[in-house]
Amino acid sequence: MSIWPIIDAPGRRIGYARVSTKDQKLRMQRDALSDVACEKVFEDHGVSGSKASRQGLDAMLKELREGDTVVVFKLDRLGRSVLHLSDLLVRFRNEGIHFCSLSEGINTTTPGGKLVYHLFNAFAEFQRDIIAENTIAGLEAARKRGTRLGRPPVLDIETVLAAQRHINQNGVSISAAARRIGASRATLGRRLETLNVRQDELTHPM
To answer: Is 18 helix (H, G, I), strand (E, B) or coil?
Structure first.
């Protein structure tokens, strides 16, 4: 008898496995995904879960179709950022894709499991609000002190999501949002595209 949750959905079961370093092994995850009869398994070996874009994950997202179930051994294999996890789960829900994390027993093919979508979305919205407020308040305070804000070498996912939220809620252009976070328009635009946010879908494009 299987120790894993029963996946009650007619579509394909698509597995995803990830380890953070080259020294770690994928065997345990592969075995678990095999136990629940995953038809395909996509992998990222030696890739941090904090990265929103990963070769294996990106390939899986392109492969998915309505009715499929994404299966992972543990939730943190899919991602370590609550915001990124929430965005993925919302995407799955909108595209009619189920999700199952074996170790935590999260299974959206059941009525109770569907609550996970709402819980993650609510928590992520709360966290986005805090990040946006803190980011904007911090930058404005720095400007008042006369601090010159240079472009950061890398825009992390939280900063990009805060900028996206500022654009949508306050009706500013991408250029204006980029200036507020000390980045160029091109840099912010590229990061928004990486997060699957098309610039022409923003409420106030430049």
So the answer is: strand
Within 10 angstroms of residue 130's Cβ, the number of other Cβ atoms is 11
Q: Whole-model pTM?
A: 0.60
Separation in Å, CA 24 to CA 15, 32, 59, 182: 18, 16, 21, 37
Compute and round to an integer the Cα radius of gyration of the chain. Answer: 19
Beta strands (DSSP E) in the chain are 13-19, 40-45, 69-72, 98-101, 106-107
Q: What is the mean pLDDT of residues 81-98?
A: 84
d(CA 18, CA 24): 9
Q: Which one of the listed residues 20, 103, 173, 175 is annotated catalytic?
A: 20
- Catalytic annotation present for 20: yes
pLDDT digits (tens, 9 = 90+) for 139-162: 666 666 666 555 444 677 778 888
Task: Measure CA of the first residue to CA of the last residue in the chain; give whole Å.
Answer: 58
Instruction: For residue 67, give the DSSP letter.
Output: T
The confidence band for 104, taking pLDDT boundaries of 50, 70 and 90, is confident
Biggest CA–CA distance in the chain, Å, is: 66
Q: Could you tell me the two tokens for 20? A: 């953070």
Domains delineated in the chain: 13-110 (3.40.50.1390), 120-201 (no CATH)
